[in-house]
Design brief:
Elements lengths: L14 H18 L1 H20 L10 H31 L2 H6 L5 H29 L8 H23 L4 H18 L11 H7 L3 H13 L7 H21 L4
Helix pairs in contact: 1-5, 2-3, 2-5, 3-5, 3-6, 3-7, 3-9, 5-6, 6-9, 6-10, 9-10
Amino acid sequence: MSAGTFTPAPGAAPVVRMIGAQAVLETRMLLRNGEQLLLTVVIPALLLVLFSSVDVVGLGGGSRIGFLAPGILALAVLSTAFTGQAIATGFERRYGVLKRLGVSPLPRWGLMAAKTCSVLVVEALQVLLLTAIALGLGWSPRGSLLAVALLLVLGTAAFSGLGLLLAGTVRAEATLAAANLIFILLLVGGGVIVPLDRFPEAAQGVLGLLPVSALSGGLREVLQHGAGVPWENLGVLAVWAMAGTGAAARFFKWE
């Protein structure tokens, strides 16, 4: 037997393998967190059932579920990729978890990629559940599944980047408050359950540029009106994704 057969070969694993392992860990943590599941699953489902049953915002009977279902899907992406991820990452940073990861071979962008992958897994489960509920309430979706997938992936990238930017630059307590406040504001003013045309005309243009407005509007064009690929909405989401991810990669602090 040659010398050195049992000598360890220290060194980092391939980046793809490190990201995959971290993504699996992040997914398990998300699915085990009861508070996160309340935010990401229970609240969107309750809002879908409530607002489809009671005409609170005057949507009209026939169009109510057709309008609400795409908006609630956008809300699910917002709750998971932005609010939930920002809060969880903020407290990981506070308790020193990220500091320990910072001295590992996993690069900063690799951590962000792993967290985004875990969010996509949770969102897939959300979409299946919310779609089943909406179909049970009489929803008849139309349009291209490819267009829907593009919107959801770009929306996830946009909100994930913004959530990590928030979590990686301010204190955990401030992240908790800011993430919940932004969630409520976007729920009301992002075209999720209240049509943008109910707001003053001067505000509609600004609100339409928000990522949740672009996501809910694009999903609505495809699933409610049967439109093709909503390039304008995808463009808005792409800009937010590049800006948020780029800023998070530049300014994210491990501790």
